[in-house]
């Protein structure tokens, strides 16, 4: 069974918060803020730290604006208290600078918290007032083009030999041959169709040329 990494991290957070809380109390008490006032200082520092961190998370960690300033300031106050209680500073005889810093911290923390709250409201208003992108209109479906109706199939010519055409038209074979093969300079009177079996002419064209009615008409 794998151990949950959040449990050791939570224990570390509780230890760090408790020690830092006690160190801030000790520094405030040594600087002349005794009694209940000394316990308010660690609460004020931690609250400002949490508020600034929430703002940084909402802005995706971008190092811009007041959140990072107040986060680093509250972190410096907590870290400074930890260092001060290690014996670097004589807390039995605190310096005037330490007394001034501790005395001015509540106003500074209130000012920073107010700025963080108002910047969050301004950010929410900007997000609400930002113009929304217009919804994309659904793409129009292309109209189906109507396929043209097929026209009538071309008629296959009724090809016959010169002799057969001459028999139908009642003329000599040479007349049909001459109409299909005119002399130079003269247009043909009948269209000659060249086939593997020899030249042929269209019987319907022959009837039309010689004013003959089709069979059965």
UniProtKB/TrEMBL annotation:
Transmembrane segments: 65-85, 97-117
Extent of Basic and acidic residues compositional bias: 199-217
Keyword Phosphoprotein: no
Keywords recorded for this protein, A-Z: Membrane, Transmembrane, Transmembrane helix
Stretches with biased composition (Low complexity): 122-136
InterPro entries linked to this entry: DUF2637
Region annotation (Disordered) ranges: 122-161, 174-217
Pfam family, one: DUF2637
Biased composition range(s): Acidic residues: 137-149
Protein name, entry field: DUF2637 domain-containing protein
Source organism: Streptomyces cinerochromogenes
